[in-house]
Design brief:
The complex is a heterodimer of chains A (about 260) and B (about 850).
Chain A lengths: L1 H7 L10 E12 L6 E12 L3 E5 L6 H8 L7 E6 L2 E2 L5 H11 E4 L11 H11 L6 H11 L14 H14 L4 E5 L7 H16 L5 E4 L3 H5 L3 E6 L2 E7 L3 H11 L1 H5 L3
Parallel strand pairs in A: 3-8, 3-9, 6-7, 7-8
Antiparallel strand pairs in A: 1-2, 1-4, 4-5, 9-10
Chain B lengths: L1 H10 L1 H37 L7 E4 L22 H6 L4 E7 L1 E3 L2 E2 L7 E2 L2 E2 L1 E5 L9 E5 L7 E5 H6 L7 E5 L5 E11 L11 E5 H8 L6 E6 L5 H10 L9 E4 H48 L1 H9 L4 H40 L13 H27 L5 H4 L13 H23 L3 H34 L1 H7 L1 H12 L1 H39 L4 E4 L8 H9 L3 E14 L2 E8 L12 E3 L9 E5 H6 L7 E6 L2 E13 L9 E3 L1 H7 L7 E6 L5 H12 L6 E4 H44 L1 H9 L4 H42 L8 H28 L2 H6 L2
Parallel strand pairs in B: 7-12, 9-11, 17-22, 19-21
Antiparallel strand pairs in B: 1-13, 1-14, 2-13, 3-7, 4-10, 5-6, 8-11, 9-12, 10-11, 15-23, 15-24, 16-17, 16-20, 16-23, 18-21, 19-22, 20-21
Helix pairs in contact in B: 1-9, 2-7, 2-9, 2-10, 2-21, 7-10, 7-16, 7-21, 9-10, 12-13, 12-23, 13-15, 13-16, 13-23, 14-15, 15-23, 16-21, 16-23, 21-23, 21-24, 23-24
The chains are: A alpha/beta (about 260), B alpha+beta (about 850).
Chain lengths: ~260, ~850
């Protein structure tokens, strides 16, 4: 499996560590002096290649900040982030942008697509920006799996929430990135559409060898992953492999018993 | 609600800043024009009023007061010179002066005629009674004897004349006369003279040198205790002033008359400026309306929240209008103050364009403030009405769900709009076409203008429909050049056709007018060149000063030159035909078919021999005559009449051909005093240009009042003056164009604010900062080019229609489209668009991705 994936990822000097993404002692501080907030307080975590990992934590735990720093959307205050062996914290804005374009796929909770572009144009956008075209076979495969064939000429406004999210998935995969970051990808979807998206993410990991890192606060979504890491107050608070609803809930309760009890 | 409105304004200070600049500029232009016009009027009046100083009564010839050297000197009437002594002898008269103003060309120290703005100097009479004088002597004394002369200070300085120097003046009989310079006076602030050289003499010398038959005015000062009315009555009773149509003024009436003259000189000019100012103000209104529309769309959620907590539709409407009112009041007041500065700029601009309109001091009338600020308020509040109505349509439920304005791709333009737009455009074209078919030039022009305006409004209404496809076409080239960023920009520019159309409409207005003027001036140049080549194919012309002629021996000398082929003297004057006054021309028969080739309707120009006449085609009707019939001609000074047979008719060629052409012999018979004013020349074939020119220059070298023009000189002069006019129009429209460009920057800024998340998404997906900036610049560029292109198409169309109309009426007029110049407009528009995007693009690129992407 991994042999096949490697051939897809041309130019990737994938880490000998076996991690697609690796963060060490990551610190992110907002503000300064007395009002400074440590959103990440020394996080060390690795995300293996071909692994589907969920990041969980209560609101304000720093999980979104972690994802932004891992994905090069935000710069860490201290520590290091490597994607496919490339140190992100040493890159300038332009290099970071080019790295995002080629090596990272994104799926956001909402507002994933540009309203002016058709589904097809949205899917091709990152490749287009890089001046590239996807191989025909890969294109057909992704579009086929996501069942988007009939929707390519539609604009986002003409698509349902589930369809929009599937377009976002197609875009994230089309450039065969080192890693796909998904930020609450099912947050705005009904349960059926959410399940479809999760199934697709699982499939992309297990059948296509993709690496996926997903931020979520939904236990069901987290259980679709191979592994769940837990974050609270900017610190790693647990790591559960092959998660089940029970194991995840237990871990969450351990982090913040009061909140989980209140049903958050 | 008033508090909400104010809070909104405060909260959106930054967003309102750019739009307030547009109001400020629009109002400033209007205020500046009003202030400037009032100031030049005051300056003119101050100058003119000097003539009324200490004057208790004045007598002017029939036709009334002539105050300025600008006024036509031809056919000027004067007061009987014998009247002056009679007036002086009246018992109640303390003193009386005869005032004279006439041509008095001065030679500089190298023997060349002094010309300022193309005009030779004028001579005036200096009074003996200093109280009736209106010159400020800066050194020396007033000329009081024959042989003495005073000169204006500017000329004395420029030409290095000092008191005691000899000054040569060419008198009315073309004889040089030497005078002793005794005084220097200041005319620098005097609007009576259009910057010309002015020399002063004692009264009898002034009459003689200028060749005046009498006085332009007799100014009278009464003995103390005599009323002005009484003095005028006494003057009216003088037999020598009776019956010749002389006009009488009391000193007070003279002042009033001078004030109205000052208004007359400046009001037309003020109106001309005001037209451009109002165009600028309207353009700024378009920009403001667009801004309010965008703000309302962006604030949908806020408005919905207001409605949720219980604001009525009325209150929402009122709040939006109050916002507009406060905004308009602040921006307009600032605009008024900007106008004070602008009025000085206008003065500088017009003087640079060669229009001598200096102002001594600024006259800031409260009415200028009232009108300009009032107009600004009207425009802003008026512009806010439609957006305010849109605000009332926001449903309370949108507070919970609405997305920010532009994140939705808006619906297509309504059918009603398309229908009305099409109807207006087609009706306008039909009306314009009808105007072009009209034979009557001025009525055709009015109908055409109406049609053009209706078409214009129709096209603006269709703007949202036109915008998307045109943007797609325009975006093709940048798409090829810049790839995906440009394609994104094209999609963005086309996403909200209404907004783009409204934004670019402001630019279209200015560019339409500039293009129209450009096409028309280019066509005039081309037509004039064609006309010379086809109808007046001269190589050189020797031209005399106005009211003088080329001496007969000079004509003879030119005819004898071996370097010259055809030499023909041309005469130009007024005669009376069948009782109606007509411009008549005559040319030596050698010039027929060689130097003049009119477009003949009937007969041939060479049919014009003594005893015959050729007329403009339209004159046949107006003189109730026809080919083969006869007309009666008399000269300007009476004399024996001639009976002339009509033998030919020609089309009015637009330039040059007079209403009537007669033979030289008949012309001399009717007006023996009038010599040729022009000698047209064709060089002998085989002679080089340099040789023929040198020969002519040598032949006229000893006559400083003659000017030699080649065809090239003539074309240059024409081109220079036309370019100057075009530059002035463009500068006048420049402010409107600037406002429109600020409008583009404004729209883009507001759009960028709306699209914060979208930009962040693009950045996340791999758009670099530079690409984001480039994307916004291309978007602004496309908007600007859309506005410019529409303007060029419409302006070109209107220009074509105008040229066609003139060509139809005159038979001459060829359309010239200056493609290169129009292309420059497009490129300049593109560049301006890019510049307009600099600030919004920087702001967009500064945004950090992570914070923007999580913002709701």
């Amino acid at each position: 499996m991994s042999a096949i994936t490697r051939t897809f990822r041309e130019g990737s000097e994938s880490a000998s560590s076996g991690y697609a993404v690796l963060a060490r002692d990551l610190v992110k501080t907002y503000g300064s002096g007395a009002t400074a907030v440590r959103a990440l307080d020394g996080v060390t975590v690795g995300f293996g290649q071909g692994e589907f990992t969920a990041i969980m934590g209560p609101s304000g735990s720093g999980k979104s900040t972690l994802m932004h720093c891992l994905a090069g959307l935000d710069t860490a205050t201290a520590g290091s982030v490597q994607i496919g062996g490339v140190e992100l914290t040493k890159l300038n804005d332009k290099a970071l942008t080019l790295l995002r374009r080629r090596r990272i796929g994104f799926i956001f909770q909402s507002f994933n697509l540009l309203p002016t572009l058709t589904a097809e144009q949205n899917i091709l956008l990152p490749l287009d920006l890089a001046g590239l075209k996807p191989p025909k076979q890969w294109w057909d495969q992704v579009i086929g799996v996501l069942d988007l064939g009939g929707r390519l000429k539609h604009r986002p406004g003409e698509l349902s929430g589930g369809q929009q999210q599937r377009v976002a998935c197609a875009r994230a995969l089309m450039s065969r990135p080192e890693v796909v970051f998904a930020d609450e990808p099912t947050g705005n979807l009904d349960s059926r559409s959410g399940a479809e998206v999760l199934a697709f993410l699982r499939m992309s990991v297990h059948e296509l060898g993709q690496t996926v890192v997903m931020v979520t606060h939904d236990t069901t979504a987290a259980c679709a992953a191979d592994r769940v890491v837990f974050l609270a107050d900017g610190i790693m608070r647990g790591d559960v492999a092959s998660p089940t609803p029970d194991s995840v809930t237990a871990q969450l309760r351990m982090i913040r018993p009061d909140r989980v009890a209140a049903g958050e | 609600m008033f508090k909400t409105a104010l809070a909104n304004l405060r909260a959106h200070k930054a967003r309102m800043l750019l739009s307030s600049i547009t109001v400020l500029l629009g109002v400033g232009f209007v205020a500046g024009t009003l202030i400037f016009t009032a100031s030049i009027k005051e300056s003119f009046f101050d100058s003119f009023a000097r003539q009324a100083k200490n004057v208790d009564a004045a007598v002017t010839p029939a036709g009334g007061l002539q105050v300025s050297s600008i006024e036509n000197q031809q056919d000027k009437k004067t007061v009987n010179p014998a009247a002056l002594d009679a007036v002086r002898n009246l018992p109640d008269v303390a003193s009386a002066e005869g005032r004279v103003l006439g041509p008095a060309p001065v030679l500089d120290k190298t023997g060349k005629v002094v010309k300022e703005n193309g005009n030779t100097g004028v001579g005036v009479a200096f009074p003996t009674d200093a109280k009736l004088g209106y010159f400020d002597l800066s050194s020396g004394h007033a000329p009081t004897a024959t042989g003495e002369i005073a000169m204006d200070q500017a000329t004395a300085e420029d030409r290095h004349f000092a008191l005691g120097d000899a000054v040569t003046v060419i008198d009315h009989g073309d004889q040089p006369e030497s005078f002793h310079l005794v005084g220097i006076f200041d005319t620098s602030t005097d609007k009576t003279y259009a910057g010309e050289t002015v020399v002063g003499f004692d009264t009898p010398t002034a009459l003689r040198v200028t060749g005046s038959a009498g006085y332009d005015q007799i100014a009278v000062r009464a003995k103390s205790g005599v009323s002005q009315d009484h003095l005028v009555t006494e003057l009216k009773d003088l037999p020598v002033l009776d019956g010749s149509g002389d006009t009488f003024y009391t000193g007070a009436q003279l002042t009033t008359e001078l004030a109205s003259k000052a208004t007359g000189y400046t009001s037309g000019f003020g109106t001309f400026l005001l037209v451009f100012a109002i165009i600028a103000a309207l353009v700024s209104a378009l920009v403001i309306q667009n801004t309010f529309q965008i703000l309302v769309a962006q604030r949908a959620r806020e408005l919905a929240l207001l409605r949720c907590v219980g604001a009525t539709r009325r209150q929402v409407f009122g709040s939006t209008l109050i916002e507009a009112f406060v905004f308009g009041a602040l921006a307009s007041a600032a605009g008024f103050f900007a106008g004070i500065g602008l009025s000085m700029g206008l003065s500088a601009l017009l003087n640079a364009a060669g229009l001598n309109m200096p102002t001594d001091h600024l006259v800031i009338d409260p009415s200028a403030a009232l009108y300009s600020i009032g107009l600004g308020l009207l425009l802003t509040v008026g512009s806010a009405v439609l957006p305010a109505r849109a605000a009332t349509r926001v449903a309370p439920v949108q507070a919970l769900s609405a997305q920010l304005g532009e994140t939705r791709v808006t619906r297509k333009a309504g059918r009603v709009r398309v229908g009305i737009g099409l109807l207006l455009a087609l009706a306008g074209i039909a009306v314009g076409y009808a105007g072009m078919q009209t034979q009557d030039r001025s009525r055709g022009f009015m109908v055409l203008t109406l049609g053009a305006m209706v078409t214009f409004i129709g096209v603006l209404a269709l703007g949202p429909v036109i915008a998307s496809p045109v943007i797609r076409v325009l975006g093709w080239l940048p798409g090829k050049a810049f790839g995906p960023t440009a394609r994104l920009a094209t999609a963005n520019a086309g996403r909200n056709p209404r907004r783009v159309a409204a934004t670019t409409a402001a630019l279209t207005i200015g560019i339409t007018l500039v293009t129209m003027f450009t096409v028309v001036t280019a066509s005039i140049k081309a037509s004039a060149t064609d006309s010379i080549k086809e109808h007046f194919p001269f190589d050189y012309q020797v031209v005399s000063e106005p009211d003088r002629s080329v001496p007969a021996d000079t004509v003879a000398k030119l005819k004898a030159l071996p370097e010259l082929g055809t030499v023909a003297a041309e005469y130009d004057g007024k005669i009376t035909l069948n009782g109606s006054s007509e411009r008549a021309g005559a040319i030596d028969a050698a010039g027929y078919h060689t130097l003049i080739n009119p477009i003949m309707k009937q007969g041939s120009i060479s049919d014009v021999v003594p005893g015959t006449v050729a007329l403009q085609d339209s004159q046949l009707t107006s003189l109730h005559t026809a080919i083969g019939q006869t007309v009666t001609a008399t000269g300007p000074n009476g004399g024996p009449a001639l009976t002339l047979k009509v033998v030919a008719s020609y089309q009015d060629s637009g330039i040059g051909m007079p209403e009537t052409t007669i033979s030289v012999a008949d012309f001399q018979h009717l007006d023996p005093s009038q010599g040729p004013d022009t000698v047209s020349v064709l060089a002998e074939s085989g002679v080089t240009l340099a040789a023929s020119r040198a020969a002519i220059e040598a032949a006229v070298a000893d006559d400083p009042l003659l000017t030699v023009n080649s065809v090239a000189d003539y074309k240059n002069q024409l081109n220079t003056s036309l370019n100057q006019i075009l530059a002035m129009f463009t500068a006048m429209l420049g402010l409107a164009i600037l406002i429109a460009l600020i409008g583009i920057a404004n729209t883009l800024s507001l759009s960028v604010l709306e699209r914060t998340r979208e930009s962040a998404l693009l950045r996340a997906l791999g758009l670099t900062r530079a690409q984001l900036r480039r994307m916004l610049m291309v978007e602004a560029m496309l908007m600007a080019v859309l506005g410019v292109s529409l303007g060029i198409v419409m302006g070109g169309g209107f220009g074509w229609a105008l040229v066609h109309l003139v060509a139809k009426a005159t038979g001459v007029g060829s359309l010239a489209i200056p493609y290169a110049q129009l292309l420059i407009y497009v490129l300049a528009g593109a560049l301006a668009g890019v510049l307009a995007a600099v600030v919004p693009a920087r702001r967009a690129a500064r945004q950090t991705v992570a914070t923007a992407i999580t913002e709701a």
